[in-house]
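User: Show me a protein chain along with its predicted structure.
Assistant: Here is one chain, sequence first, then structure tokens.
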Amino acid sequence: MSDDRYDDEAAEPHPWDVPAHDRANDSPTSERLQKVMAAAGVASRRVSEQMIIAGRVSVNGVPVRELGARIEPSVDELAVDGVVVQLDQSKRYIMLNKPTGVVSTMSDENGRPDLREFTDRFEERLYNVGRLDAETSGLLLLTNDGELANVLAHPRYGVEKTYIATVRGEITPLTLKRLTDGIELEDGPIQADRARLVGEASRGRSMVEVTLHSGRNRIVRRMLAEVGHPVIDLVRRRFGPLTLGTLPLGATRELTTVERGALLTLARDAREGKEPAPRTPKSPREPRVAGSGGGAGRARSGSTERPRREKPVERARPASHRGAAPRGGSGSGTGQGSSSAPRTDRHRRPGESS
């Protein structure tokens, strides 16, 4: 009887099918978990150790609590609080605010301006994730991470995109309802996930924010034209967990650690077949509290309670009353000869009127 352990034809298990500890302990390239976390910028080694002990760290989806754990940075997937940590530092993730007039390709046969103007700024060979038509400006992701690009661009993963469109005419609530209920286009039905007005109509124009997960060609322009409001200007403000923010037109920037973690987590969930968690966007008029992360400074979501007003400072008593004798005291009422100091509002007893 043959032993599969010595069968050269036996299929080798995928590295993730072998527990990280069993695989890494005998590997000369393995490293201590807390050292890898510190090198990735998660936290210092000491703080990383505390995270491990607290059960906040997982390797390939398995929680790790042992301080002596070792992993293979080139193979294993590290997550802290469920968010994937970038270990491969050769991967680049760049946000571009694409101007109008630029086609979303690395070369254009018609000689139009293309994305090489922006990718040539970097040593790595970067590619765009998805497309924006030449007349649309806004957020475009550039990366050399092919797996991530495939996940974000694939229609079945339904990555949300948010656009701000300036259109002709005055959009009504009924029009917004048509967009979210669904309309019929020549290539099939389509509906927006969310649609809302931005500001008020002016000079025969309206601004509308449209969020949807479809990647069909020029879909926002065609939807708005179908409901009778041709697009004058279109900007993509959000792509998945990324927000354009104040990035100037034509500028690029590296994604932050938080943004990279959000993208890598999205790719992991898609690979594992998990549904993306629904996101409830905040109203743009909702005030943001500096340093908010919970606590008293942030108003509870959905609360209808009005913010408290500062109690007005009580004014001092008029000069004509400053010499009056205290209540119940003796004197002629002019206050002259009184041995008591004049009572101001801050010395008044509760219930005593001014």
